[in-house]
Amino acid sequence: MRTPHNERVSSDIADGAKARTTSEPERRCILSGEHGARAALVRLAISPIKDDGTHDVLPDPLARAPGRGAWIGVDRPGLEAALESGQMRGALARAFKGAKLNVPDDLPQRTEDGLRKALLDRLGLEMRAGLLILGSDRIAEHARGGVLELLLHASDASEDGSKKLDQAWRVGKEIEGSGARGTRLPLDRAALSVALGRDNVVHLALADASAAERVGQSLSRLLHFMGTPAGGPDDSGEADGRVTATTD
Question: What pTM was estimated for this model as a whole?
């Protein structure tokens, strides 16, 4: 297959996760009933019991909250539809064994915000580890050397600047004419600059394969939830890999 993974973040990470986690227990989606790998899903958890005897249902993007959780793999429109129809409330009641639940009306927005923060936090961790490559000149040098694993552009990056780096990346990978390009993030330069503590972060890249996979996984979950996957069907017509959800 000719299409590089920069154009298929959702698919490649999902495919990789399946290959690595065949021995891990799968989970069943509380909405669709389908199964998927934990790393590709979004976890929901409940707060400690409040004075009125209810628990708030909250997104848990890092899957670290204590207690039982429920996993979803639908996109935001799917979650909104499930909330509107009442399907979500029934599924949550079964997942949390009849606990009195308060399901906030803005759960979809909270989930998207949580996934966006998780991605920014992951980029920050890779930055502190010295693995994130910033600056157009440095990125272009690494791109032409053929060592980039992931190339990313801010949502408000100029087309001209992005195309130049995309071209350098294709030259380095010896895939000129393929149309391969970096991934445009659902984050603007202001958000990236604040998260990374640098001025005017517009383009960023990773040469370390493990770091690229970690970032790609966080990115693919956010893009999937937003309903804007990084790429469409590949050369063979295979659709990008989207996975749906489960309970603990």
Answer: 0.82
